[in-house]
Amino acid sequence: MPSIPHLSVSLLLLLVTACANGFSEEKKLLHSEILKDEAVARLFELGKVSDSEEFLERTFQSAASVRAGSLIRRWMEDAGLQTWVDQMGNVHGRHEGLNPREKALLMGSHLDTVIDAGVFDGALGIITALSALKVLKIKGMLGNLKRPVEVIAFSDEEGVRFQSTFLGSAAIAGVLPVSTLQVHDKSGVTVQGSLRMNSIDISEENLLQLKYDPESVYGYVEVHIEQGPVLENVGLPLGLVKGIAGQTRLKVTVKGTQGHAGTVPMKMRRDPMAGAAELIVLLESLCNQPESFLSYDGQCAASAAQSLAGSLVCTVGEISTWPSASNVIPGQVTFTVDIRAMDDLGREAIIYEFSNRIHQICDKRSVLCFVERKHDADAVACDAELSSKLRSAVYAAVGPLSDDELLDMPVLMSGAGHDAMAMSHLTKVAMLFVRCRSGISHSPAEHVLNDDVWAAGMALLEFLESLV
Ligand SMILES: [Zn+2]
Q1: Which positions make up the signal peptide (predicted)?
Q2: According to the model, what pLDDT value does residue 398 have?
Q3: C-alpha of residue 390 to centroid of ligand 1, in Å
Q4: What is the bridge-based pairing of β-strands 104-110 and 380-381?
């Protein structure tokens, strides 16, 4: 006999309770038909809208992304929303509710994908928001919303085509530099040119006008697949996000003396490959156990140490050597370092410690080392009040998610960037993560259980009902 998924039991309990509270059988079915069956069908329908026949690919302003925008716009209208496409290709659906002058709640995620993508990344946040609003419309409650609600399907989060993430959400948040319009893709088409090919006339002036007035916005809420294994490990469908990690990218170059693999004695070598290997292992140790390496006096508070212990991740993802031949001691080795943590001061302390130790190791090995800082982004903390409303909505929607009283809803750090990161420059943000199979994303193997799609939709519905 197949085991009953944990959430199904929770939902069953909820629905039994709901019926006991006077909810009709009809309403129960309505919710599951829209929040589960239709939402899942739409995820797979959108997942078929691709520029490639073999795999899912939708990049900024590609033919498929324009078709996807039209499909989403239809679903927005089906949910009772007024729709439009802005000059960065973002698709908007809005209902003014009772008070059009009130600050608006913004919700959404991105409609673009990576190459050979899964169907849930981005799409889940758009479709669950629209499903929840559609249920409100059917219940006749859309006009009772105390503030306007707007769903935005952002045109670019992955940055595949122009190597420049958040084109859509950064424009709305007012943090997209106007020079971005002249960035070009591999075939020489600029961001501005790609929009013009789709009859969208964007200029520097109207890019600046896309920025929302912060006074007109209440907050931004995004549902997204977790893209990690934590929720699956604890056996729960939903988790709150406490923030999005800050990130630093470094490029480390180690220079030694190039030579013949057969003739240079070991003791006379200045080998940058062995040096780079030692540095990479040092980075791993440092990030595994920062508390054994860092002295926190003056550099980093005790709270940062605690925060680092739970969120710090470091990766060497790319390495290149010159001249890269099996019978040559390399002259130079270059590798990248990606460091992410919730605590910005803690991340700085790690970089400081790593850089110091790099120079000690390189001196000892008589090789030259250079560290270049290529990219920095500060961490974004989710808003406590908005998150607490989201948490209450989850509990109200699916009940206590565990029988174990000690096991509260998980609060996770996002190691990946999201549109919420750009939107945090405009307004307070909150995020809900949804369990995905084996933590896999950016792959056709990406998978979310139908019941978990339902749970996310129920949570958003409950959250919206709290605005009625
Ligand atoms: Zn995403």
Answers
A1: 1-22
A2: 76
A3: 19
A4: unpaired
Are the beta carbons of 108 and 153 closer than 8 angstroms? yes
Separation of alpha carbons 8 and 18, rounded Å? 15
Q: How many whole angstroms from 154 Cα to the centroid of ligand 1?
A: 10
Residue 181 in contact with residue 190, Cβ under 8 Å? yes
Distance 421 CA to ligand 1 centre (A): 11
Q: How far is the CA of 129 from the centre of ligand 1 (A)?
A: 15
Q: What is the DSSP string of 150-172?
A: EEEEES-SS-TTTS-S-HHHHHH
Q: How far is the CA of 224 from the centre of ligand 1 (A)?
A: 7
State which amino acid sits at residue 346. G
CA of 7 to the centre of ligand 1 (A): 24
Residue indicated by tokens 């996310």: 456
Strands 368-377 and 238-244, bridge-based pairing: unpaired
Rounded to the nearest angstrom, the distance between the alpha carbon of 155 and the centre of ligand 1 is 12
Ligand 1 centroid to residue 107 C-alpha, Å? 14
Q: Which pLDDT belongs to residue 310?
A: 76
- Please give the distance, rounded to the nearest whole angstrom, from the Cα atom of residue 338 to the centre of ligand 1: 19
Ligand 1 centroid, distance to 176 Cα (angstroms): 19
pLDDT of residue 26: 47
- Residue 3: the pLDDT is 38
Contacts of 61 (CB under 8 A, 6+ apart): 89, 155, 161, 194, 195, 197, 198
pLDDT digit string, tens, across residues 203-225: 999 999 999 999 999 999 999 99
How much is the average pLDDT of 304-315?
80
Q: Which domains are seen in the chain, by residue range?
A: 6-244+380-465 (3.40.630.10), 246-377 (3.30.70.360)
Pairing of strands 238-244, 380-381: antiparallel
Alpha carbon 277 to its chain centroid, in Å, reads 31
Distance 123 CA to ligand 1 centre (A): 8
Which pLDDT does position 303 carry in this prediction? 61
CA of 58 to the centre of ligand 1 (A): 13
Query: pLDDT tens digits, residue range 235-281?
Result: 899 999 999 999 999 999 999 999 999 999 999 999 999 999 999 99
pLDDT in tens, 353-371: 999 999 999 999 999 999 9
| Strand bridging mode 332-341 / 380-381 | unpaired
Q: What is the mean pLDDT of residues 159-169?
A: 89
Residue with the bigger pLDDT between 305 and 48: it is 48
Q: Distance (Å, rounded) from C-alpha 369 to C-alpha 334?
A: 10
Tell me the CA–centroid distance for residue 321 and ligand 1, in Å: 33
Measured at the alpha carbon of residue 220, what is the angle toward residues 306 and 33, in degrees to the nearest 5? 110
